[in-house]
Design brief:
Blueprint (H helix, E strand, L loop, with lengths): L6 E2 L2 E2 L8 H12 L3 H9 L2 H8 L9 H18 L8 H19 L7 H21 L5 H8 L3 H10 L9 E3 L6 E2 L11 H15 L3 H12 L4 H8 L3 H18 L1
Antiparallel strand pairs: 1-2, 3-4
Helix pairs in contact: 1-2, 3-4, 3-5, 4-5, 5-6, 6-7, 6-8, 7-8, 9-12, 10-12, 11-12
């Protein structure tokens, strides 16, 4: 996605106007009175805000024109629901609305499928969240959202997590004039701990202390997942002999480790 392109959806982003807070307040009063020209001027004056927000999603692989259109829908919804009496800047109110609209679009176009019931709960939770932001001029807590939905908070959290769009392991999360830190740099690999590494070495050394038949039995039993009866059939001895050899081999390995 090339956010740096000048023309998006037929709009020359290099010539987008910028409105002061006072100009937006004056226009908004006209909008509430039904002035459609003021509404259009207000939208044009906030397209730079949409443009800046879609840059956050420039690694999603979505066409910039599509994201810009979706962001404009969020902008229009913010205009329709904004109230000057809340005494907050329009951008403060509009940014989460625009981001929410873009995220809904990305979730709906996500290749990872989520059950309809979870999706419904999540969308209802997002709607309640927007309503509470509008009412209280702040981000609501999960408890407030769950109480408004009359659902357990755990169910709300699970539903919201289920619709989160996946991110790349190569998504940069920090950059300070040096090499960027990516998500993969913060992922802990429990299998690469020193104790796991040392245990693997010990097991390999212990296996070397066994004879060929004992190693073969342990390999068939614990690496290929076969039963003692299957091992007995494969190597041509009785199941009782397999059991005895297996026990002796494990006893030797425990002693060595």
């Amino acid at each position: 996605m090339h956010v740096s392109k000048v023309e998006i959806c037929g709009v020359n982003t290099a010539k987008l106007p910028v409105l002061t807070n006072e100009e937006m307040q004056a226009l908004f009063i006209k909008i509430k009175a039904g002035d459609m020209e003021a509404r259009e001027e207000f939208i044009q004056g906030n397209l730079r805000l949409v443009l800046s927000i879609i840059q956050r999603f420039n690694r999603r692989g979505e066409p910039v024109d599509d994201l810009f259109q979706v962001g404009c829908i969020g902008l229009i919804k913010a205009i329709d629901n904004f109230d000057l009496s809340h005494n907050v800047r329009f951008s403060t109110y509009a940014v989460p609305m625009i981001i929410g609209e873009i995220r809904r679009y990305l979730r709906d176009n996500n290749s990872i499928r989520v059950s309809r019931s979870l999706r419904d709960i999540a969308y209802r939770a997002l709607q309640v969240r927007d309503q509470l932001i509008y009412k209280n001029s702040r981000e609501p807590t999960i408890i407030e959202i769950s109480e408004a939905l009359d659902l357990p908070k755990e169910e709300v959290v699970f539903a919201l997590e289920a619709i989160q769009e996946p991110i790349s392991l190569f998504e940069p999360i920090f950059h300070d004039s040096g090499d960027a830190i990516f998500v993969m740099d913060q992922v802990r690999d429990e299998k690469e701990k020193d104790d796991h590494w040392l245990r693997d070495i010990s097991l390999k050394e212990a296996l070397k202390k066994l004879n060929n038949r004992e190693r073969e039995i342990l390999n068939l039993r614990f690496f290929e997942g076969k039963t003692q009866m299957e091992v007995a059939d494969e190597i041509g001895i009785s199941q009782a002999q397999v059991s005895r050899l297996e026990k002796n081999a494990l006893k030797q390995m425990r002693r060595f480790i």
